[in-house]
Design a protein that fits this description.
There is one protein chain. It is built from 16 helices and 13 strands. It is α+β, with helices and mostly antiparallel strands. The protein has three domains: about 170 residues, no CATH class; about 150 residues, no CATH class; about 190 residues, no CATH class. The strands form two sheets. Strands 3, 4, 5, 6, 7, 8, 9, 10 and 13 form a nine-stranded antiparallel sheet that branches. A four-stranded antiparallel sheet has the order 2-1-12-11. The longest helix is centred in the middle third of the chain and has 35 residues. The chain is flat, with a radius of gyration of 28 Å. It comes from Granulicella rosea. It is a multi-pass membrane protein. Its main location: membrane. This is Exosortase J.
Length: about 525
């Protein structure tokens, strides 16, 4: 890239100002950012996604500079920006999943919201010429969740086994037998190590893959070269991690006889990893240079575009700011109100569980949380002695957002035998629509019925047939225009069986009939008002 001066590029300040304006305007996508932050902060594997919005913005500016920061923007971009903000509202207030072959897949992806916003801003200020040249950087916005869920089971787990097996085989090769007493936790006080599948280097591999992709793009490589280079860098990360593990095995063998180095195990691991990553990065740079020389990469200068009047930019910027403020002001008020609202604790929710629901009596309660020990769901078991298999588990999701237990099970590779829907009526004539998922592992069976409740009712809408359909919980129309203020409470109703000889259809019919009776005596509105979020 050539040096840029304010004298040579009179449009630079205007472009930087627009970039800052669009970055600030993305605050209107607050629900999307909130979800993304949770993803990045709680999952180290996906934390790399936090840098992609920044990289995308810089690359779009780089592309715009090649057009001399010219181009007639289009007001159609405002429509896309508005749709992206509405999409963020839907993402916060609704659930949208498609069921294919008994498996559910979420279609509300935060990256799609940000991608639509980026396209709208690019079209509004840079026009179609910039949009054509900046489509790759904008696609990086889709990668705020850089690792798809299926990656863990389809790619990562097999390579984990390969890495652990290779390291163990190498330890046997050099005379170490990591069994019995020698299987100790790595860098323990008495000096031991454990070679486990988790030491697979997946974060390094993903980082190298994306590094090769982005660096190769900036050097003008072809799509074929980018595909080869990215795949090679990703696989190289796994191979280099095998080298790292084998090097650590050698360190362990040396440390058995050289006691002085035993206390530096963590530091040595970091030094080995950083050194390998450095050489891998240099190797990627050389590979990009090789392809660049081979292909003669280098873009032709884009055609000169007519300069856009400053008044045109200013008018579009004012329209953009006005649109953002229309959505942002109610959002800010809702956030401020939420800050002064005392959220119920797990103990409060446990106390709110009704002690009696018709013929069913609460017999025990418990909570479940995530790896950070944050309580996400409160559950209570209800029994009725005069009902066959008269036991229900009532779960109240308090972890925030819209939660679908079936999705969580899907991520753990637990798939339902079938899905469906049924209607019920709660106390005070509150309409309820449940989505049901039936599970059978050959020993135990369970039926999960889920819905999302607000004060006016509980609705999960199933479109198409149960095996190939769409699960959609619709928000209030008012929540699309302003920040969500209505309290919402996802509810789970579950029954489990240990008798696998009874036909599934009979258990399904029995569950739905008993569930209607249970829900008919359940006061949902007080629960939503007291423990909803």
């Amino acid at each position: 890239m050539q040096a840029v001066t304010l004298r040579e590029e009179p449009g630079l300040l205007r472009a930087v100002g627009i970039a800052l304006l669009t970055a600030a305007g993305s605050a209107a996508l607050f629900p999307m950012w909130q979800n993304a932050w949770t993803l990045w902060s709680e999952d180290p594997l996906r934390s790399i996604g936090a840098i992609f919005p920044i990289i995308a913005l810089l690359l779009v500016l780089w592309r715009w500079r090649r057009l001399q920061f010219r181009g007639r923007g289009s007001y159609w971009g405002l429509l896309l920006i508005a749709l992206s903000i509405l999409g963020a509202r839907v993402f916060d207030a609704a659930t949208f999943n498609v069921t294919l072959g008994g498996q559910r897949w979420g279609l509300l992806h935060p990256g799609m919201v940000l991608f639509c916003y980026g396209i709208g801003c690019t079209l509004l200020f840079g026009g179609v010429p910039l949009l054509r040249r900046a489509i790759f950087p904008l696609c990086l916005l889709l990668l705020i969740n850089p690792v798809p869920r299926f990656f863990n089971t389809v790619v990562d787990l097999p390579l984990q086994q390969l890495g652990a097996g290779t390291a163990r085989a190498f330890s046997h090769l050099i005379g170490l037998r990591p069994t019995g007493e020698q299987l100790k936790m790595m860098f323990a006080p008495d000096f031991g190590m454990m070679i486990v599948p988790g030491c697979n280097g997946v974060r390094g591999s993903i980082t190298l893959g994306y590094l090769a992709l982005i660096f190769g793009y900036t050097r003008g490589l072809s799509a074929k070269a980018l595909a080869v280079l990215t795949t090679g860098a990703f696989l190289m990360g796994y191979v280099l991690n095998l080298i790292r593990l084998c090097t650590l095995v050698i360190y362990y063998k040396v440390g058995l006889s050289w006691i002085a180095i035993q206390k530096y195990g963590v530091e040595i691991d970091y030094v080995i990893g950083c050194t390998i990553f450095l050489f891998a990065t240099l190797g990627i740079g050389l590979a990009v240079r090789f392809y660049q020389l081979r292909e003669g990469s280098g873009e032709q200068a884009p055609p000169a575009l007519p300069a856009s009047p400053a008044t045109g930019f200013a008018l579009r910027a004012l329209c953009f700011a006005a649109l953002i403020l229309v959505f942002l002001i109610p959002q800010a008020r809702a956030i401020n109100a939420a800050r002064h609202t005392v959220e119920p604790t797990a103990a409060d929710v446990l106390a709110a569980l009704p002690k009696q629901v018709g013929r069913y009596t609460l017999t025990r309660t418990w909570t479940e949380g995530d790896t950070a020990r944050k309580v996400n769901i409160v559950l209570g078991e209800y029994r009725a002695d005069d009902v066959k298999d008269g036991r229900f588990t009532l779960g109240l999701w308090i972890g925030g957002g819209n939660h679908f237990v079936a999705n969580s099970k899907l991520y753990r590779d637990v798939h339902p035998q079938w899905t469906g829907a049924f209607e019920a009526t709660a106390a005070s004539s509150l309409p309820v629509r449940f989505i049901g998922s039936f599970y059978d592992d050959g020993v135990n069976r369970s039926y999960d019925a889920e819905t999302a409740c607000i004060a006016s009712g509980c609705r999960e809408n199933l479109v198409m047939d149960p095996k190939t359909g769409i699960v959609f919980s619709s928000p209030d129309l008012a929540e699309l225009a302003v920040a969500r203020s209505t309290r919402r409470l996802p509810i789970l109703l579950r029954r489990e069986w240990t008798d696998a000889t009874v036909p599934q259809t009979a258990q399904r019919a029995e569950f739905e009939a008993d569930a209607r009776d249970f829900v008919a005596h359940l006061q949902i509105q007080p629960l939503v008002q007291s423990v909803g979020h």
